[in-house]
Amino acid sequence: MSSGHQQFGNVNSFNVLTGTYVNFVTEIDAENRQILQWLSPLEPQKRHQGVRIGRLDGVGNWALETAEFRKWSEEDGCGDPVLFCYGNPGVGKTFLR
Amino acid sequence: MIDSLCDRAGGEGIAVVGLYCDFLSQEQSTINMLGAILKQLVSRGGMPEHIRRAFQKAKKEFGGRGLRLPDLVEILRRTIVSLKRVYICIDALDESVPKHRRELFESLREIVRVSPNTRIFLTGRPHIDDEIVRCFGNAVRIPVSPTEDDIKSYLKKRLDSDTDPYAMDGELRADIMSIVPAKTSGM
Fold first, then answer.
1. pLDDT tens digits, one per residue of B142-158
2. Contact B14, B80 (CB under 8 A)
3. DSSP conformation class of A55
4. Which of chain A's residues have a Cβ under 8 Å away from the Cβ of B28?
5. Other CB atoms closer than 10 Å to residue B46's CB: what's the count?
6. Which domain holds residue A66?
7. Is residue A17 part of a domain?
8. Quick check: A82 and B112 CB within 8 A?
9. Residue B172 confidence (pLDDT) above 60
10. Within this chain, do residues A60 and A85 fall inside the same structural domain, yes or no?
11. For chain A, how big is the Rg over CA atoms in Å?
12. Model-level pTM?
């Protein structure tokens, strides 16, 4: 009987601890959301989803094969840090994959 | 571009972030744009303590004050330093307000100076080129124009999704597919 009580007590304290932990995590989450909003109201990933859906596979891939792009994107490369792709409206700059 | 870099960047500590400029957006100040870059960097994992502290400090101040540009650049530096490589992609620079663009370029120049592990990919119309050269000197520049194959892929998609297919016959389609790409590629 006494061992039963003991077990019950343990289960209870476990629940209390878990509850506190959940509250703590929820508070951190809420603060993280506030921090992200504080950093910027912009949400570029929404536009990115639209671009990804509208893109045609293969179109513009030649740009990724150029020596300029390869050199710029090399992980350990020490080339120039800025790459600028320019062109008139509608040539597909946004949709370069 | 963002997706290609993401696919290639398999390794740990490589982050790819992106922005699209939009002349209709009222919120695209330099601070909001750089803030959006930072936001993407920290959304990947846990919130860095130095950002949490900066937020808690700002919250206590008058009106819960927002970030200032130099503070933001410093926070970006401290965040980028913990990563191996960061790619920042910004599309359609010509759609940003000229005043903001200049400030943005200056901030980006400062970021690559203090964080040499940053790579910046920019797109825009040709008239932005002068500003790029003035700000970044010898930046790598690639002119973009669709190849014949690019145009064929695009035409095929548009013809296949035509809502009025009865107006089309095989001969017209063949003409479109041969003449349009030849006349428009490299324009």
1. 888 777 777 787 778 88
2. no
3. P
4. 42
5. 9
6. 53-97
7. yes
8. yes
9. yes
10. yes
11. 27
12. 0.78
Report pLDDT digits (tens) over B61-111: 866 677 889 999 999 999 999 999 899 999 888 888 888 899 999 999 999
**Residue whose structure tokens are 């530096």:** B77
- Can you tell me the distance from the alpha carbon of A63 to that of A10, in angstroms, rounded to the nearest whole number? 64
The minimal CB distance from A66 to the residues B20, B84, B142 is found for B142
- Is A6 a domain residue? yes
- Distance (Å, whole) CA A63 – CA A86: 12
Count of domains for chain A:
2
Nearest Cα to B2, choosing from A37, A23, A38, A45?
Answer: A45
Q: What is the largest CA-CA distance in chain B?
A: 72
Contacts of B118 in chain A (CB under 8 A): 81
Classified as helix, coil or strand, B93 is helix
CA distance B34 to B28: 10
Q: Which among B8, B122, B157 is the nearest to A56, CB-wise?
A: B157
Q: At what angle do helices B148-160 and B170-184 cross, to 10 degrees?
A: 150
Put simply, the answer to whether B125 touches A62 (Cβ < 8 Å) is no
Residues 62-81 of B with CB under 8 A from A: 66-67
Longest dimension (CA), chain A: 83
